[in-house]
Amino acid sequence: MTDLEPIDPETAIDLYLTDRDSEVTAATLQSHRSRLGHFVRWCDQQGIENLNELTGRKMHEYRLWRREEGELSPASEKTQMDTIRVFIRWLEQIDGVEPDLHTKVRSPMLDDGDNVRDVMLEEARAEALLDHLEKYEYATRPHVIMALLWHTMMRVGAVRALDIEDYDEDEQFLSVEHRPESDTPIKNKERGERLVALSEEVCAVLDDWIEMRRPDVTDEYGRNPLVTTPQGRVHLTTLRGDCYRWTRPCIVTGTCPHGRDTDRCDALEYDQAFKCPSSVSPHAVRRGGITYALNSEWPTKAVGDRANVSEAVLDEHYDRRTKHEKVEQRRQYLENI
């Protein structure tokens, strides 16, 4: 039997994240840190100060606790438990838990479609929101963020990574680059680098943002971020927060589609906008922009290249067109048969 070496949850997770630092992107590392933070809370509630005590039964209890405490969907539960399994397997290598414990960490099997999220910002809402920003918040940070997310279909990390020098106002495009050495990695790394063409309308917003509204600051690496706050390059949490805040329907319409009191709703608080059932994340805006492009008969490859996503992933995770919409679009090719 293996002699286990005592290790507490916090120390184990710090060592694990340090070990993985050179293997995964900063975004993946942050995701693991967040998911494992729930495990630390559970250990604290259970009085587990030494991970040598973990058993298959305890891991099953954690799975049930996390499912109920987080109100997780099957897809979210799988993501959580898959991360735990990787962590437990790592612990086995340093004699922190019993051998093969990771084989007892279970996660749900997903049926077709269970891992696909359908939430997106619909075209009508996006147009109404952008019109509202154009009229009342022209060339402000939220206007710039929402215009970029919708029209370019970029991931939020790519928007954060942009510098002023990445914007070519004459040729009307943005250059998306992977710069992990100065804290702006992008998903897919060098494979995610690309030029993204812009419309005249989006260029006008960027031009006026840079000239009139953008806080004139550099980041800690001496770079000139395109999207800034008075403190420097915008944080991902700020980008996500702006997205949740400005996709609350009451901001545009003045009324709540959920029957809530618009004077007392919890989601009206600056940092609680995500509590609105209709507010959406940047990823949902991206998904909506992709679906809008596909509905506008953009070639799938062109959408994939612009959004930096493969056609297979595009079809499974982003294309929210109905079967009827797809068949009507295919009908145009009948005359060529």
TrEMBL record:
Signal peptide extent: none
Molecular-function GO term, any one: DNA binding
Keywords: DNA integration, DNA recombination, DNA-binding
Protein name: Tyrosine-type recombinase/integrase
InterPro entries membership: CB (IPR044068), DNA_brk_join_enz (IPR011010), Integrase-like_cat_sf (IPR013762), Integrase_catalytic (IPR002104), Integrase_recombinase_N (IPR010998), Integrase_SAM-like_N (IPR004107), Tyrosine_recombinase_XerCD (IPR050090)
PROSITE patterns: CB, TYR_RECOMBINASE
Domain Tyr recombinase as annotated: residue spans: 115-334
Core-binding (CB) domain: residues covered: 7-92
One of the GO biological process terms: DNA integration
